[in-house]
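BUG: 3D viewer hangs when loading the predicted structure for this chain

Environment: internal workstation, default settings.
Expected: structure renders.
Actual: progress bar stalls at 90%.

Input used:
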Amino acid sequence: MPGTCAVVRPVAVRRAFSPLRQSTSLKFMDDPQYFDLVRAQLENQLISDSGSSDGHLQVYAKDVPRLSVLLIDTLLDSPTQPKQILAADLTTDPGLLTQRREYLAANRRLLEAGGSVHRLFIASENDLCREEFARAFVSLVDHHRQLGVTCGLAVRDRLGADQAVDVVVIAAAAVLVEEEQGDAEYTNGRSSVYFQGVQQWTNRFESAWGQGEHAAPRLLQAYDAVARPMLDSDTWDTDHAAQAVAAL
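Structure tokens produced before the viewer hung:
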């Protein structure tokens, strides 16, 4: 891509973002100043052809990693409060999430600046009972905790369809709704960014995160207490894991 930017960029940017530039409803955005900052950044970067309308930007999945970083860095550089990210990950392959180095670096920058990141890993019962998945998942959680991320677990089979969504909520300003993980190259599908109606996505995240004894961090702690000793001692017992998952 670097070798083609000079030729493709002007046309692609005009085609993809002219609807955002021409928007006359800035005042209707949940956070007009944040929206305007993102719009300016988009005009300075090459994101492939997309459809957009007031308060909604649609992009190809391959652009999601760069767009994720842009949204976080804009939050960090803007007056928008709170400096908070609520992220729900449909965790089908923990290894894919560890490969998003630029995105994780953006998370680290926000955390080091005093912001917060709550990440909800949504995994199926069957996956949580598999040793291969559990080993990669525990490693993934460790990595995020080292960054300072507050981690939680939800069992996908027990969530509603509106909760089991791959989504990143940026403060009260924007929400990135991703396609379900397909592959490491993000070659399938499209994803959307919404600058309106963010609160409903915050509510969905919080309902999946839960409270008290059933809160996502507690479920993750309970799973970790069973899975980690078996992994460390190389004595994985699928039946024992299934009993632990059923009790979450």
